[in-house]
Write a structure and sequence with these properties.
Length: about 120
């Protein structure tokens, strides 16, 4: 299965919606797209929406953690939202929720990061 990446800027927050599978086949492509968008734009914060993400492996975790370090180095915040049960288990086991908040939806994530108009 392929991975679809949709990006939208909301103020200084990049919202990234992933659909499909984030695995070793798609991780490098996603990493490059996110890095380019973060470096090119006025991105301070990052919200990753996993509403339509069916699968993620350790390569996907690497993408998330790398972007977390990049956003933190710029003084920003990062959150994930709309996580299904299978992906949630992986993120929880990895300890990701100890460093990054999880929200039910994009609106709550934007509110939680205090970037709502």
């Amino acid at each position: 299965m392929n991975l679809k990446v949709e990006m939208e800027h909301h103020r200084k927050t990049l919202i990234v919606r992933l659909s499909g599978e984030l695995d070793h086949h798609t991780a490098d492509h996603v990493r490059l797209q996110l890095d380019e968008s973060i470096q090119r734009g006025q991105t301070e914060h990052l919200v990753l929406s996993f509403k339509d993400l069916q699968f993620m492996d350790s390569s996907g975790l690497g993408v998330i953690l790398g972007r977390y370090k990049l956003i933190k180095s710029k003084g920003g915040k990062m959150a994930v939202c709309d996580v299904n049960e299978a992906v949630y288990r992986l993120l929880d086991m990895s300890g990701l929720f100890k460093i990054m908040p999880i929200y039910d939806n994009e609106g709550q994530a934007l509110s939680g990061l205090e970037v709502v108009s």
